[in-house]
Amino acid sequence: MAAKLTRKTRKVIINIVPLVDVLIVLIFFFLMTMQFRNVTTLNLTLPKIETAGQNKFDKNIVIEINKDGEFLVNGSELSREEFEPALRQLKPVADEITVLIRADEETLLKNLTYIMDTCRKSGLDKIRLQSR
Question: What is d(CA 15, CA 70) in angstroms, rounded to the nearest whole number?
């Protein structure tokens, strides 16, 4: 009885259909939850401040100043002549508005003081400086 026992080995088949289904659902989920924002900002290198706490702003105006003295107000570029009248329009609601200034670390002090002085003349006294 020297009969050889031979087993039939089945081919190993990897079913890819469930894997593809799961990947499609994940891709759909990530695409639906992504936030697409059109952000126009200046290339700024913010100075480090180690002692600053975390600030939360509800209503604010973001003013960005680059090292060449150009600045953006809430994402739109304004010249010095347009800046002052734009801030004066906000005077009726000035108590509720915080001005957040993001200046490059190589920005001249005269540009920063001009922005701060203009904000105070317009009645915007809540001024914050942002750092990294």
Answer: 59
Burial of 31 (0-12, 13-18, 19+ CB in 10 A): exposed
Question: What pLDDT does 78 receive?
Answer: 85
Which residues contact residue 24 at a Cβ distance below 8 angstroms, ignoring those fewer than 6 apart?
none
At 110 the three-state DSSP class reads helix
pTM for the whole structure? 0.55
Asked if 107 and 64 touch (Cβ cutoff 8 Å), the reply is: no
Cα–Cα distance, 4 to 29 (Å, whole number): 55
Kindly state the tokens that stand for 41: 């900002």
Which domains does the chain carry? 60-129 (3.30.420.270)
